[in-house]
Design goal:
By secondary structure, the protein is an alpha/beta fold. Helices cover 30% and strands 24% of the residues. Strand 18, helix 9 (309-316) and strand 19 form a beta-alpha-beta unit.
């Protein structure tokens, strides 16, 4: 699907979608709990549907409503026979959260997916399974495991995806005895692990953690523990709000609701980044109002907020001076190589993106109208970042592959239209 964007005077208030990160974790914990949980404020993105489908194969019962799910869990022990491959679509969270849990079924499990899912590294799990004498085989099209994880001491580097740490944390309370997980420095994306621990705590599981002098963190998980049912609501998503926030400080007239000020989401740092760049906004009664601002370049560290990468590339185009984005290497391992994708597409606006190792430098400039269609690279965050860039630049643009937004924010273009942008969707 292509989207044709035409700039317009933006004005209005939009509710951000529920946090995908929080929703994944709530669904997983509810599926492991004894009893019935109700999770409100759910948005059925492709990624969340993948997780719902996977936990059903573990034995959980999930009843869907327009904006909520009721989950009757398997109690963490009444796993059913898995009779077909577990389809994870393009969701790295679904795959990495569920690999350790499906190993507890002691069955041969085949995971399938779409896009670049199996091009994304799973070496951490391969080594872990190998050390315990378990089967772990990955091809470009699927991944197969066989064998039940045993409790013990696990040591993981901290500069990997936090999804591996979270996957082990979800499974460890269900093992026969205590386990420890040591995360070595530098510990990146720790805020995502904090989201996992928060979800586990809400569902009755306790994890002790200790920060060591050498910078490592030790998690101690008593076992066996049992997840207990819990009713909860999913908070708004800061990583999605970032697109509207950036658009707001570039064009003015945009207000956002649905964000929790005390959130553990690492992507809430977008507000601090905007302040450092000179972005103006106010908050009153839970409504954030973003005003058009004169922006200046800053240094930005993506170590704990890699999902903000694409929209921060867009922001940098409009900042006076050269914005330096450090620890961007994780962007190469997402749904696309987000560094290469944004470099290629921003060049169509006349923006030069300089890359040296894991550091990116972008100098603000006057943006020109793209003479060829923009390519979304089958990546939801790239598509949304390019839409923000075009509208903020006041330039009409065509974005190919716009359907990628279904992965996380299916209503994104409807929201832009409601705010006053010209949006025309065309099927290929």
């Amino acid at each position: 699907m292509n989207v044709i964007l035409t700039p317009g005077r933006l004005h209005g208030t939009a509710a951000v979608p529920p946090s995908k990160s929080v929703a994944h974790r709530a669904v997983v914990c509810a599926a492991l709990a004894a009893g019935t949980s109700r999770i409100e404020n759910i948005a059925y993105s492709d990624d969340i549907r993948a997780t719902i489908g996977a936990v059903r194969q573990l034995g959980a019962k999930v009843e869907e409503e327009p904006a909520a799910v009721t989950v009757t869990g398997c109690g963490g022990e009444s796993f059913v026979t898995v009779t077909r491959p577990v389809f994870c679509n393009e969701s790295g969270s679904t795959l990495r959260f569920l690999i350790p849990l499906f190993s507890l079924t002691a069955q041969k499990i085949r995971f399938t997916g779409a896009g670049r899912l199996f091009a994304r590294p799973q070496e951490i799990y391969r080594l872990l399974f190998s050390r315990q004498g378990l089967r772990f085989e990955q091809t470009g099209e699927d991944l197969t495991i066989f064998g039940r994880l045993s409790p013990g001491g696990f040591t993981l580097p901290g500069d990997i995806s936090s999804q591996f740490i979270s996957g082990l944390l979800f499974a460890a309370p269900l093992l026969e005895s205590e386990s420890t997980i040591e995360v070595l420095p530098p510990y990146e994306s720790r805020s995502y692990v904090e989201l996992t621990l928060g979800a586990m705590q809400r569902f009755g599981v306790r994890v002790a953690q200790r920060q060591r002098k050498d910078g490592s963190v030790l998690y101690r998980i008593a076992a066996p523990q049992r997840y207990t049912a819990c009713d909860c609501a999913v908070e708004g998503d800061y990583s999605q709000a970032a697109f509207l926030a950036v658009l707001g400080v570039l064009t003015g007239g945009v207000s956002v609701t649905g964000l929790q000020a005390a959130s553990r989401q690492g992507d809430r740092v977008i507000l601090d980044i905007l302040k450092r760049c000179g972005g103006k906004f106010t908050e009153s009664g839970g409504v954030y109002k973003f005003s058009r601002s004169l922006l200046k370049a800053a240094e930005i560290d993506l170590a704990d907020c890699p999902d903000l990468g694409p929209v921060l590339f867009a922001l940098a185009c409009f900042c006076n001076g050269t914005t330096v984005i450090r620890h961007a290497g994780r962007l190469r391992l997402k749904e696309s190589d987000r560094i290469a994708a944004m470099q290629q597409e921003l060049a169509k606006f006349g923006v030069q993106v300089q890359v040296e190792g894991d550091t990116v430098a972008i100098t603000g400039t006057a943006l020109c109208k793209p003479q060829t269609p923009l390519d979304g690279h089958n990546d939801h965050r790239v598509v949304m970042a390019l839409a923000v860039t075009a509208l903020a630049a006041g330039q009409s643009a065509v974005i190919r592959g716009a359907e990628a937004v279904r992965k996380s924010w299916p209503d994104f273009f409807n929201v832009l239209r409601m705010l006053g942008a010209g949006v025309e969707l065309q099927q290929d």
